[in-house]
From TrEMBL:
Lineage start: Bacteria, Bacillati, Actinomycetota, Actinomycetes, Kitasatosporales
Keywords assigned by UniProt, alphabetized: DNA-binding, Repressor, Transcription, Transcription regulation
Residues of the HTH tetR-type domain: 13-73
Source organism per UniProt: Streptomyces malaysiensis
DNA-binding region: 36-55
Name of the protein described by the UniProt record: HTH tetR-type domain-containing protein
Any GO BP: negative regulation of DNA-templated transcription
Length: 221
């Protein structure tokens, strides 16, 4: 016996790609915590069972969302310029995608995936450092250091980690006073800067710190 509604998705011309695209749009709009297969089915105008013609379960769908968002990043061509310029362009493309999908992008950063899109992201990062001729083990260390910075910085900017931005002047002042009230000279001196946050400045500073550190290690500039 055919489950009620099981063929409706096929009759409507649904595909796995269309289901995932709808899920990306919903998560970007409502956030991952509000997402469910039932709500997605309602959004698509089908019954719940019809979704299972295209995806086996919610975890598989969320993996598909992460893959789709990652696959949508247009990494720059790895031709011309210095390795520093290439990694800056690579980081800018990754961060731009995060800002384009602020609610869905954390799935890219938190769900393990061996998809072609994930492999291409790793390959494109490794290619930025190819001219340095590092040993395979060391270039993987560089890759993971860069990735750790990108994940931490983006998650913080998107509000999924400790975040001190998006506060009005009164809130910044209150936080500055609270930090300074500790009496610790280091905390007091840095309180105005600890209390506020500029994602653009901090992202660029952190990236340049990584680049200059690697350049010093390999003897470049």
């Amino acid at each position: 016996m055919t489950a009620r509604g099981a063929g409706r998705g096929r009759r409507l011309g649904l595909t796995r790609d269309k289901v995932i695209a709808a899920a990306v749009a919903m998560i970007d709009r409502d956030g991952p915590d509000a997402f469910s297969l039932r709500k997605l089915a309602t959004e698509l105008g089908i019954e719940n069972m019809s979704l299972y013609n295209h995806i086996p379960n919610k975890d598989a769908l969320l993996d598909g969302v992460a893959e789709a968002v990652l696959a949508g990043i247009v990494f720059p061509e790895q031709r011309g310029g210095t390795w520093q310029e290439r990694i800056r362009a690579h980081a800018a493309a990754f961060r731009a995608a995060a800002k384009q999908h602020p609610k869905a992008f954390p799935l890219v950063l938190t769900r393990p995936t061996q998809s072609p899109a994930a492999l291409e992201a790793m390959r494109s990062t490794l290619a930025c450092f190819d001219e340095l001729r590092l040993a395979p083990e060391e270039v993987v260390h560089v890759l993971r250091g860069y990735t750790a910075f990108m994940v931490g910085s983006i998650m913080r900017e998107l509000g999924y980690a400790i975040y001190l931005g998006a506060m009005d002047n009164d809130q910044v002042q209150q936080r500055t006073e609270a930090i300074a009230a500790s009496g610790d000279p280091l905390l007091t001196a840095t309180a105005p800067y600890l209390a506020d946050s500029d994602p653009d400045t901090e992202f660029q500073y952190g990236l340049e710190l990584l680049i200059s550190g690697l350049a010093a290690r390999v003897g470049g500039s």
